[in-house]
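Hey L., structure's done. Input below.
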Amino acid sequence: MTSRCVQLVLQYDGARFAGWQRQPDERTVQGVLEDALFRLCRTPVSALGAGRTDAGVHARGQAAGVRVPDKWTPATLRRAMNAVLPDDVWVKQAFEMRDDFHARYDATSRTYCYLVGTDEEADSPFRRNRELAWRRPVDRAALETAATEFKGDHSFRAFAVKGTAPDNDDHHCIVYESALSDRLGGLEFQVRANRFLHHMVRFIVGTMLDIAAGRRDPAVVKALLDSEDNHDASPPAPAHALYLERVEYPPELYLSFT
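Output:
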């Protein structure tokens, strides 16, 4: 049977998921996605994600590569998937890709954002599970100074869970963008890099929040980037305010757009 390679661009609410990766006794995004694909294709179909989001982390632009029978065009597959998926997962877009497309290794960048609520309504039940309600002072100048320090090619060993990368991994990531911006009701931190380590964004945000509250000096960022371990890192920020925004690929990998 002939098949085609399709990239699914996914949005999901991570609150009721134990992360991306399929687990035997847990509800995961990959598990739900592969169950829906089996229902439609009547055969097991693997869904390979661009990255493994942690439990509670949301996505507005996660990418997954699937290989499906040729009868499924990107448009028909998207419609069918959205008809059978649970209401906390949605296929935003679908693209036909080259046969050698790999959702993880072909990605040129990934972008995450973290939402911090600084107004009184951040405690609202409509917001408190989607952003971090922050009730401490915010030194905006110190935050902006700290954010710029992350840009460039650095070892992020101090901003990762120890032991989750191979021993021969140098923990280097290239951060293309690292910026703080205002939004209605609070702040948004956005970071785009070629790759991310386990809990990396949450460790970064945890450090920045300590800087915002005056508990740490902005100079600590450079010291941590030069560190050989994560002993001096601030605790990671909670997962519920983190979003995988988008994943980028070289345009020559796309065969069709919908």
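The longest strand covers residues 58-69. The helical segments are 29-41, 74-84, 140-149, 200-212, 220-225.

-- N.
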